[in-house]
Amino acid sequence: VARHRIAVLPGDGIGPEIMNVTLEVLRTAGRRFDVEWEFLEAPIGGAAIDAAGDPLPVETLSLCRRAEAVLLACVGGPKWDNLSSKQRPEAGLLRLRKELEAFANLRPVRTFSQLLDASPLKSELVAGVDLIIVRELTGDVYFGEPRGIEFIPEGNGEREAFNTMLYRESEIDRVAKVAFELAMTRPRRKLCSVDKANVLETSMLWRSRVSTMAASYPDVEFSSMYVDNAAMQLVRYPKQFDVVLTGNMFGDILSDEASMISGSLGMLPSASLGDGTFPAIYEPIHGSAPDIAGQNKANPMACILSATLMLRYSLNRPDMADAIELAITNVLDQGYRTADIMSAGKRLCNCSEIGDKILEAL
Amino acid sequence: VARHRIAVLPGDGIGPEIMNVTLEVLRTAGRRFDVEWEFLEAPIGGAAIDAAGDPLPVETLSLCRRAEAVLLACVGGPKWDNLSSKQRPEAGLLRLRKELEAFANLRPVRTFSQLLDASPLKSELVAGVDLIIVRELTGDVYFGEPRGIEFIPEGNGEREAFNTMLYRESEIDRVAKVAFELAMTRPRRKLCSVDKANVLETSMLWRSRVSTMAASYPDVEFSSMYVDNAAMQLVRYPKQFDVVLTGNMFGDILSDEASMISGSLGMLPSASLGDGTFPAIYEPIHGSAPDIAGQNKANPMACILSATLMLRYSLNRPDMADAIELAITNVLDQGYRTADIMSAGKRLCNCSEIGDKILEAL
Ligand SMILES: CC(C)[C@H](C(=O)O)[C@@H](O)C(=O)O
Ligand SMILES: CC(C)[C@H](C(=O)O)[C@@H](O)C(=O)O
């Protein structure tokens, strides 16, 4: 019997509902593959603010450090929207990423042939898309100092707000290396780096480092693209992309946009990897969806697929990941759909119902 | 006879080709409506670097200041890509916007019923879209100081690059006011402000100022949205938007993305307005397309439509703007298309051919 110790952070909003289903799926897969799970649950985000006055309590962080991997659902909600930037639920998530040095956020975007109708894009453009966004996750304007809101000197009471977009060479290099190595494992071996090097110094340094590294990967077909153009090209012709490398802020925007290729944010998992010193974090790319929280309506598949990324990248169990992915495929083939991916003639399920179908298929 | 003095900046790449056609259209419309044009042409961007060693020569700027409006095509190209940030073609454009205090960049996005096929989005989602992005244009990380690339103290030769995202209250207020006033003139009276207030102080100040102003416009249906969500919603269901207000960097990304709703960047004009002290700038939102420059393949319609915005906003000639827009509609109805909007069964035209068709229709 293999044993794995996983930190489980359900977070806020729909988080507890989708995490519940995900743990059930892992437990069932565990029985089939002779794996015993030790799930260490802890609060993060708004739940942690309410319980402990801190969006990332020290107990939660140390529990994460002791685990082999961190499985996280989502954080945030209107209840905590008026707190200052360091006290918000989101600050807990950002500190977790930073403390675990999870600098490379992998966001695979692929289409499910059963869900082509769910995409707002024309089916012939999205069928067969298989791209992955590598988003830098512990730098950029998310973390740069100085930041704040201050009165302008001699501004007669006027205030200004500022953040710092910042990258050092070593931060660029380490995430670029992840992206190039990843590109080498993929059939097309393409890498497109996205920046705004026609305006920003941060992007100029980014472009020059990544281009330099490209010379050491002659088998990778490398290109650079401006972020405004990339935002357009992702919609215009997504099949042109294989691996897309970008910074934290641009990656946030582009990956949510790219989710529309698969039809729903509710289908997209992510993996946030460091250099191996600390456990990696696995989380869906969607948010906490306060509007449907507690209603058993959410799509748990992005969270379940995040668990399959954990099985692949942290636990070296591709067999279990394959089995769970197959179960999801079967359930989609049978026509079961949550509301976000519903289309005519399909069978609408709530969160726990679709979970049960996946368990049956397993 | 009315006389109008216009600064004409053809810029780089496809700029001269599309500007040529645009001026022909204005001349023909002028004959019909008894308007005499004084076109003052000057170099900007790469052309100005080559001619005068400066992407915005003082002569160009002072000529712009003496005009009633500035009509600009596009700047940039690989030839000047290795220059430093302050010497690039783009720096000339950015300085022009700043010097003329053109802080409110209006980017209308609408669909042409004749071009629904050209959009990568499903036709039923884009038919009838009529939204306008109000992008702040003289602040944000585009202009914030400090900025640069420096060696890290004690960094053993490692460098870091930084830019400053920055907004003062008065900068937010003046562009927000343009957006609210604009929303008041539109049938749906909706305004959605886009930011990243769950992470950035700059966005928190933005959100708090814009929300405060919303209270003075009770007839406007106001909402705020995070930029990652907005990037998704623009593709998911664009009809939900009417006026979209956002900062310089987010606006750059979202407006290029939104161009796919109309099917091509080649159809989208923009107007950059200040408080009236200086002339406004009218320019297509597309770039200089170096790959097709000099080949007479470009779509001049975004540039021509920018001229119609000039007729409306700066010259108070809605009659002429209507006539030109009608001519474009007729040409599209007749099935003439440039390459970027070509679809099966239509007649492919090059840049000057489509220009001739528009002149005939006028
Ligand atoms: C919740 C928020 C802080 C977060 C981010 O911006 O990184 C989210 O949007 C994401 O993409 O994971
Ligand atoms: C050319 C570039 C500097 C410019 C910008 O980023 O503003 C362009 O992309 C635009 O949108 O007008």
Automatic annotation (TrEMBL), chains A, B:
PROSITE patterns: IDH_IMDH. InterPro entries: IsoCit/isopropylmalate_DH_CS, IsoPropMal-DH-like_dom, Isopropylmalate_DH. The keyword Lyase does not apply. GO terms for biological process: L-leucine biosynthetic process. It catalyses: (2R,3S)-3-isopropylmalate + NAD(+) = 4-methyl-2-oxopentanoate + CO2 + NADH. The keyword Magnesium applies. SMART domains: Iso_dh. Its EC number is 1.1.1.85. One of its GO terms (molecular function) is 3-isopropylmalate dehydrogenase activity. GO terms for cellular component: cytosol. Its main location: cytoplasm. Residues 5-358 form the Isopropylmalate dehydrogenase-like domain. It is found in: Cytoplasm. Binds 1 Mg(2+) or Mn(2+) ion per subunit. Keywords: Amino-acid biosynthesis, Branched-chain amino acid biosynthesis, Cytoplasm, Leucine biosynthesis, Magnesium, Metal-binding, NAD, Oxidoreductase. Catalyzes the oxidation of 3-carboxy-2-hydroxy-4-methylpentanoate (3-isopropylmalate) to 3-carboxy-4-methyl-2-oxopentanoate. The product decarboxylates to 4-methyl-2 oxopentanoate. NCBIfam families: leuB (TIGR00169). Homodimer. Belongs to the isocitrate and isopropylmalate dehydrogenases family. LeuB type 1 subfamily. This is 3-isopropylmalate dehydrogenase.
